[in-house]
Amino acid sequence: xxxxxTIRPEEAAHFGKxxxxxxxxxxxxxxxxxxxxxxxxxxxxAVDMHWxxxxxxxxxxxxxxxxxxxxxxxxxxxxxxRLGAAVTGVDAAPENVQAAAAHAEGAGxxxxxxxxxxxxxxxxxxxxxxxxxxxxxxxDKAAFIAxxxxxxxxxxxxxxxxxxxxxxxxxxxxxxxxxxxxxxxxTHHWDDFVTPEELGDLLSAAGLTVTSRTGIGFSPAKGLHLxxxxxxxxxxxxxxx
Length: 241
Known about the structure:
This protein has helices at about 10-15, 30-50, 75-80, 95-105, 140-150, 165-180, 195-205, and strands at about 65-70, 85-90, 110-115, 125-130, 150-165, 210-220, 225, 235-240. It is an alpha/beta fold. The protein has a single domain (about 10-240), classed as Vaccinia Virus protein VP39 (Rossmann fold, 3-Layer(aba) Sandwich). An eight-stranded mixed β-sheet has the order 3-2-1-4-5-8-6-7. Strand 2 (about 85-90), helix 4 (about 95-105) and strand 3 form a beta-alpha-beta unit. The radius of gyration is 16 Å and the shape is globular.
């Protein structure tokens, strides 16, 4: 594994140990399985708006390339492939990309997976670049965002999600979530969370402009859902200036 400028070896090792459970909706990645449809709703709306797609088109990414950075075992890569994209998934943990490749093969999906640091991989540019719940785990956030921007093709779309650094997220995403086993212990470090304003500044420095942003909230009635409340988590889209 290339440790480059963004990967923290201890973070890669933590998530690599979870590789065998990524696709178990009741395992250690259960929260991601609940979060994935919420992310996909935002991504689909962002894609439709960015490329003026027909909202009834089941393959709006046909003919386009997509890169998911910090792909884990492919929970987002596979639906992106089903939306028509030629998908590449990159993750810091070799165990994760091995699990991802095996699952994609079993699903009959042609997805390219590789392990390493995105800043050091020469893989060209992509129409869609996504990175979900990854920014809070990287060592150099400015370098990571710059590396993502470097993989975005002219006219492309970027979608990122990450926890917000608030009192609510400290209480619920770190304290309560780990206490009840909703996420594995050691998953989140609150000091590494990034506010929407800070991420906007990082994107601006990389030559990108935020085009849409919304919170990802939780309630007993709705579960995880897109929300005006950004206090726990948020997701945004961006384009090159």
